[in-house]
Design a protein that fits this description.
This protein has about 100 residues and is mainly α. The chain has one domain (about 10-90). The protein has helices at about 10-15, 20-35, 35-90. Helix 2 (about 20-35) runs antiparallel to helix 3 (about 35-90).
Length: about 100
């Protein structure tokens, strides 16, 4: 059994995860104005530019992210290895680092 025909924008509106509100509204305006092909071409250009911009932003954020992670790892290493070894090498009479005496 065939369902009643709906507009293209109505069909897109049923899938909000795939098509944004802007996309649906632009298609609806294109349908009403008779410029659907031109609107779809503009939307394709917009989506391509958006994807290109996202890719540039992600690649630009990779270097600072890697530098931050390496800096955190170096800090943790220094705290765990160097500071702990320095504290262990302090004399036992130091107030903060008294060693327990076994009796």
């Amino acid at each position: 059994m065939w369902k009643a025909a709906t507009s293209f924008s109505d069909a897109l509106q049923k899938h909000p995860k795939a098509f944004s509100r802007l996309y649906v509204c632009m298609v609806a305006a294109g349908e009403k104005g008779g410029l659907l092909a031109e609107i779809l071409a503009r939307l394709a250009t917009y989506l391509e530019n958006t994807a290109r911009l996202r890719k540039k932003v992600k690649s630009a954020m990779m270097y600072p992210t890697v530098v931050t992670i390496v800096a955190i790892l170096i800090t943790v290493f220094l705290l765990v290895r160097v500071v702990r070894c320095s504290v262990k090498s302090l004399p036992a009479s130091t107030p903060r680092c008294r060693r327990r005496r076994s009796t």
